[in-house]
Amino acid sequence: MESDNKKEHSNDNFLFKLISGELEQAPFARDMCTRFPPEPNGYLHIGSAYAIQTNYNIARSFKGKFHLRFDDTNPLKEDIAYVNAIIEDIKWLGYDPGEHIYYGSDYSDEIHSAAVRLIGHGKAYVCDLTPEEVSEYRGTLTQPGKNSPYRERTVEENLALFAKMKKGDFAASSKVLRAKIDMGSPNMNLRDPVIYRIIHAEHYRTGEDWCIYPMYDFAHPIQDSIEGITYSLCSVEFKDHRPLYEWVLRELGIESPPRQREFGRLSITGVVTSKRFLRQLVEGGFVDGWDDPRLPTLRGLRRRGFTPESIRGFIKEIGSIRTQSTVHISLLDHCLRQELKASTASVMAVLKPLKVVITNYPDDRAELLTIENNSENEELGKREVSFAKTIYIERDDFAEHPPKGFHRLSPNGEVRLKGAYYIRCEEVIKDSDTGEVTELRCTYDPITKSGTGFNGRKVKGTIHWVSAEHAVKANVHLYDRLLLESADTASGSWTDAVNPESLVIMKDAMIEPFAAECGEDCLERRLQFLRHGYFCIDKKHTTADRLVFNRIVPLKDSWNKKN
Question: Where is the tRNA synthetases class I (E and Q) anti-codon binding domain (predicted)?
Fold first, then answer.
């Protein structure tokens, strides 16, 4: 993790420089402390990772603490399953908060007391307007709002009504508590914002203790103050909320209050991170759950085979951004390729098998050939691969009528088998009904065994293969971008937006047994399938009878070239 922190000290990190300048004035009598405040109503995604890393690294840069605090003030959408998933994902990502895991709902009494204090100071009132009327009274960006007819209720009346709200005497949405600020403010967030609402629902943590719940903009600064947060770091869309954050702390008389500072919001091309949109994709059956490898959720990226190091490297590569910033998804793939290129073993996998019988190879013979695991990293060693009379090659590696520049196998043509021999195609067998090529009859030249010298002979093409007798049968999932480049995410209609080739399933692929001979480690190991890309085992769909591999990324960025 130390390498991640170095970026935080670089001269181009505006947030680090901003905070460094402020800390020179010694505004706090406490250590640096930041927090990440997710709502437990969904799963973390790649954008969440950017916010987490920003908060975590700023805290570490100034030798401070990092808090994980759940903003669990809406019982209608929250679930303990999301809480557990978020904790697990943050730890997997490498930003373990340790003992500093907190829940906003644990501060319910303090937040309620703060609301009562505001009422007592004449700074909050109970309003009977409907949600639609509240919105109407707020005005627009060009027109000021107008006061609620309930704005001038007395302190005593507001205290009594708020107590009845807490007791459960009123129906949901029939009343709210609003801060009394300025309905004519050019900042919409200061036009008497709602700070408490009535919700009659059981909370996953507090049960039925409460039927009134604070709004995030009110609870957030109070929670920060209770925990001793020094910097509330949030994305730039919350900049207009900062005056309300500061108003709450000021009106409550908080000394040495935390400071809200904003950083840029990260957007990624071809990726949807909105929880609402993600939920539509999941519930509409367009994807295989929240951990679908095509989704930008951390659980999806993890199942696909991305490593925490590659995600951290991606965020580090982006650096510190001030405003809205859009990054091409290919950068994330690039960061993973750079990590896997020299650290993964290569194996031969035939995704579209074509049977090849080597007619002059002995029927009862099988030999072991030695092949390097990674041509760029000798430390990964070598492995033994079985070779026998019948093998499989890729169907695409044979052409009955080869185009110009085709350097693989064709009738009367010769090609080298990776780590093995030269073979020549002598006969093509076809299905009598369809005309499809079903088998090739080839001969091999024993003198061309890899590593023994070829008598000066050369061929232009080398192809991979697997022994039919020894191969492991598996399904292989090839992933592409979930959404088409032209997708209109705002419409909420996903039928025409989802890329029909975002998942291609190759059934009955043939893979050399080395890919499955690693015991339990197989579930975490990444492999390179020669010419196909980087793969890992899909834990969700692999069974005792059938391995399923996910392609993490292809060897080269094909998506960027297509668009």
Answer: 462-538
pLDDT band at 10 (very low <50, low <70, confident <90, very high): very low
- The catalytic residue among 39, 88, 227, 317 is 39
Asked if 39 is an active-site residue, the reply is yes
Catalytic residue (choose from 123, 138, 151, 275): 275
From the list 381, 438, 455, 390, the residue with the least C-alpha distance to 417 is 390
Per-position b or e across 162-192, b if 16+ CB within 10 A of its CB? beebbeeebeeeebbbbbbbebeeeeebbbb
Of 359, 363, 355, 352, the closest CA to residue 429 belongs to 355
469 catalytic per annotation: no
**Residue 140: how many CB atoms within 10 A of its CB?**
8
Give residues with Cβ within 8 angstroms of 137, minimum separation 6: 129, 145, 146, 147, 148, 183
The pTM of the full predicted model, rounded to 2 decimals, is 0.88
Domains located in the chain, CATH noted:
2-263 (3.40.50.620), 275-340+474-562 (1.10.1160.10), 353-372+384-465 (2.40.240.10)
At 12 the pLDDT is 52
| Tens-place pLDDT, residues 53-65 | 999 999 999 999 9
Query: Rounded to whole angstroms, how far apart are CA atoms 29 and 109?
Result: 26
Catalytic annotation, pick one of 166, 178, 180, 265: 265
Compute the C-alpha angle 264/267/269, nearest 5°: 155
In the chain, % of residues over pLDDT 70? 93
The mean of the pLDDT values for the chain is 91
**275 in active site:** yes
Interval 491-516: pLDDT, tens:
667 888 889 999 999 999 999 998 88
